[in-house]
Design a protein that fits this description.
Elements (H helix, E strand, L loop, with lengths): L8 H4 L2 H13 L13 E4 L11 H4 L5 E4 L1 H8 L6 E3 L5 E3 L4 H14 L4
Antiparallel strand pairs: 1-2, 3-4
């Protein structure tokens, strides 16, 4: 069974992206910009979509990049409709819904409405 390609896979497979990603990660010393832990992922702040894939100001501009660890990158994407996580290769992995996951989502939503 063929693996579904993620949005922008062609960009991620390009030499231009690899050069940009490596230069950006090195400039940040592979340190997560959110928590300070070792980083593995070069994240696009403005998510890649079918509409902006051919725009180098989105795909290759260092101003649109962020150096993140897996944990912070997962946290960034946890608000998406489908529960997902990222494996060690930075590939998207769907999380199977469980009662615990639903309880966690409900508790998180309740906390988000509280005023501290």
């Amino acid at each position: 069974m063929a693996r579904k390609r993620r949005t922008g896979q062609k960009i991620y497979d390009s030499a231009a992206w690899e050069k940009t990603r490596r230069a950006y990660m090195e400039s940040r010393h592979y340190i997560c910009e959110r928590c300070g832990k070792p980083a593995q992922i070069c994240h696009h702040k403005e998510y890649l979509t079918a509409c902006n894939l051919n725009n180098p100001h989105i795909t290759l501009d260092q101003a649109n990049l962020e150096c993140l660890c897996h944990e912070c990158h997962n946290r960034e994407h946890e608000s998406s409709r489908e529960p997902i996580t990222f494996n060690a290769s930075a590939e998207i992995v769907k999380v199977k819904p469980t009662a615990e996951l639903e309880e966690f989502a409900d508790a998180r939503a309740a906390i988000a409405t509280m005023n501290f």
